[in-house]
Amino acid sequence: MDKTLNQNQPIYMQIMDKIRAAIVSGELQPGQKMAPVRELAEEFGVNPNTMQRALAELEREGLLNTERTSGRFVTKDTGLIEQARKEAGEAVVKEFFYQMKALGFTKGQVEDFFRQMDTEEEGFLEIV
After folding, report:
1. What percent of the chain has pLDDT over 70?
2. Stated pTM of the model
3. Residues 108 and 72 in one domain
4. What domain range includes position 43?
5. Residue 8: pLDDT band by 50, 70, 90 thresholds?
6. Residue 91 and residue 69 share a domain
């Protein structure tokens, strides 16, 4: 999981995005135990209170669960994970089309762009 943070967005939100991405990509598996707050805070180079806030927000979303004496775990609800994955994918696609529109591409040009890329780069559009 990438732990690089920038100054363009609140740190706790960046941490949330990175952990959410790790969950929806399968890097963090359903039911997997999370490292303790202090350890995660150290890994990200942030204050434990900042990490706690990010984790608490992910709990509110349902992606993490706390078991009183055992710690925090990734949700086992694969439907919820799949929904978060779909939402993340939609956000990426919307941002892509926004950027292409800002560059002056039309819908047809974007379609042609993908066809050309798939031809030039064998298997460009194949998802493994």
Report:
1. 89
2. 0.78
3. no
4. 11-76
5. confident
6. no
